[in-house]
Amino acid sequence: xxxxxxxxxxxxxxxxxxxxxxxxxxxxxxxxxxxxxxxxxxxxxxxxxxxxxxxxxxxxxxxxxxxxxxxxxxxxxxxxxxxxxxxxxxxxxxxxxxxxxxxxxxxxxxxxxxxxxxxxxxxxxxxxxxxxxxxxxxxxxx
Length: 142
Known about the structure:
The strands form two sheets. This protein has a four-stranded antiparallel beta sheet with strand order 4-5-6-7, with helices on one face. Strands 1-2-3 form a three-stranded antiparallel beta sheet, with helices on one face. The chain has helices at residues 6-16, 119-139; strands at residues 20-22, 40-49, 53-61, 68-73, 79-85, 94-99, 105-109. Strand 5 and strand 6 form a beta hairpin. The chain is 23% helix and 32% strand. The chain is an alpha+beta fold. 16% of the residues are buried. It has two helices and seven strands, in the order H-E-E-E-E-E-E-E-H.
């Protein structure tokens, strides 16, 4: 079995759904795209997305440097890791779940109610993100 690059996987996805594929695109200066200094755009798919919304899907790769990693069994089954990248309460704080050694990965902004992050917050993030990552794995093109 040969390896499929992220760019070719997105290109195949775009073709199968009637979207236009491009290696580069003009993206908004702000929003939910990685602001990491080493972020690399691997490709885009543009057109009518589910629900009839016009939009662009962008595939980024970047280095995720965690402050804490906890690994073991996940709520939805299988092994994975809960990854925290948080040095202070800021908009750049992230939490992620990685299935297996290489993904898929589901991530979100790390936000909590005062006075701070609780074990209940971590359990909620873990369950939600593990479910999202499992869905991504189940629907990923072969």
